[in-house]
Design goal:
alpha/beta, Purple Acid Phosphatase, chain A, domain 2, six-stranded mixed β-sheet, 7 helices, 13 strands, 25% helix, globular
Length: 280
């Protein structure tokens, strides 16, 4: 094996079972089979209201994927109206039906993927970037060198929330800085139902090493926000990454946008047009 071998990661988010479009779900399964990824990463909001039947639907969806998967919860996977469950066992449905591993990791010879639980049951829509959990991830990924691409999966983006307090806002930026400094190359998030790919230095105005920020739209939900259903495919090599967005059309999911990045001494940047591995 050579270090320029390309591996595919499918990035899904915001499935929202309970508000899913069945035709989109079926097409998504077919498209993932065509892509034949190394792993499927799901960045939260598997359900619409954290109900048992919705978790069962999500579990059936995952079980039908014949690939390794790494999943983290989202704020919709915490009960909103069942206050007793939200206080006493906020992720009980998630851990019962999806996974009880809230700090998942997938280790491959060229790719390491780790998951971060950013749910905050006390304020369901808000995010929590627990310092201890962030430090754990930093400790886990720091030993891996530049011959391994390090990926973090979380539901919430790292940018400040308009309704958050100053301390929480600062915590998000500090978490991003700590994780980037520790070697995270790619952040896979969701929550906003809008697809986006940028490098962290330009988006967050932080100094030092630049990582990639890859957000996925909603893969299967009818809760659309001025965008169609979509998901991402990352074509990952040691020194180059291609992010390919697949959009829903009347004929199924189709590639709609491609962005290429290469590794440099200061992190990940957009290369000349001819650089980077071709999707495939």
């Amino acid at each position: 094996m050579t270090t320029d071998q390309v591996y595919r990661i499918v990035h899904l988010s915001d499935l929202h079972f309970g508000r899913e479009d069945a035709a989109v779900v079926d097409a998504l399964h077919r498209q993932i089979a065509v892509i034949d990824p190394l792993i499927v990463a799901i960045s939260g909001d598997l359900t619409q209201r954290a109900r048992r039947v919705q978790f069962k639907q999500a579990r059936e969806f995952i079980d039908a994927l014949p690939y390794p998967h790494l999943v983290v919860p989202g704020n919709h996977d915490v009960p909103l109206f069942n206050l007793v469950a939200r206080i006493l066992n906020p992720l009980g449905g998630y851990t019962s039906h999806i996974t009880d591993d809230l700090a998942p990791a997938y280790i491959h010879e060229r790719i390491v993927i780790v998951g971060l639980d950013t749910t905050k049951p006390s304020r369901v829509k808000e995010a929590r970037f627990a310092r201890q959990a962030v430090q754990r991830i930093c400790y886990a990924v720091r030993p891996f060198g530049d011959d391994v691409v390090k990926v973090l999966v979380a539901h919430h983006p790292f940018e400040p929330s308009p309704s958050g307090d100053a301390r929480a806002q600062s915590g998000r930026v500090q978490a991003l800085q700590m994780l980037t400094d520790a070697g995270i190359d790619v952040f896979l998030t969701g929550h906003l139902h809008v697809s986006s790919v940028q490098h962290s230095a330009s988006r967050y105005n932080i100094g030092g090493r630049s990582a990639l920020i890859v957000e996925a739209g909603t893969a299967t939900s009818t809760r659309l926000r001025e965008a169609t259903n979509a998901f991402n495919v990352l074509h990952v090599a040691v020194d180059s990454i291609v992010v390919e967005r697949h959009d829903w059309t009347p004929d199924g999911f189709r590639p709609a946008d491609v962005q290429r990045f290469v590794r440099t001494e200061s992190g990940w940047v957009e290369p000349p047009a001819s650089a980077g591995p071709e999707p495939g």
